[in-house]
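Below is a concrete protein record.
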Amino acid sequence: MKINKKIIFKFAIIIIIIIVVIVFVFLMQLPDVSKLKKSNPKLSAIMNQRIQEAKQKNKKYKIKQEWVKINKIPKLLINSVVLTEDSSFYSHNGIDYYELKESIKKNFQSGKKARGGSTITQQLAKNLFLSTKKSYLRKINEFFIAKKLEKHLSKQRILEIYLNIIEFGRGIFGVEAASRHFFKKSVSRLSLREILRLVAVIPKPLRLSPLSNSGYLKWRVNLILKRLKNFKKISIETYNKMTHINLKEKLQKK
């Protein structure tokens, strides 16, 4: 059977056009993030998700959130978040391609979505516009929204929004609300020990409390402390002092 090259060529052109149209429509449906330059988001997608989850269980759900400007957030808290959640935050354009590659490889090998590999910008995209549901479609949306966020917003603004909407417990969103809820003070007045405990719960906000004494929390606190020392965000003296305090707390608990 003779293959008609003209037919194959026309068919290929049609496929390419269809793909271009689909991509164009997809990109047009992405949220407008430019308004976030000056306007603070009121309710995030994750907040709405939690409200709906509570309704399905016939439970009341109250959101605690207090917006705080980034210049009122301690530098140590910001450094702790960046070094543990996304160490290349200031150098990438929304996507850490090395982490993305490692995530895809790990998930493929395990046969499940085990590793996220999300940057702070991707986490912000998920929190603001998507959901906690793990799916490849969500990751694709997350990818393109993150690129838009980096295009329209400064790194400082991305961090400010992120730190004001991330989840820290049932109904608790943002570092200011979390600080007041757990430590009864404004985030600007947190000690290093309190900062470490607050940042440590970010990966598992519904399972951990900054006030708990779980082994995982203590491991996270020590990890953050070591990274602050290694990147010279705290002095050796401060590191040794905090290590001594952590050891003393362990001995007192025994």
Q: What stands out?
A: The domain at 62-253 is CATH 1.10.3810.10 (Penicillin binding protein transpeptidase fold). The chain has eleven helices and two strands.
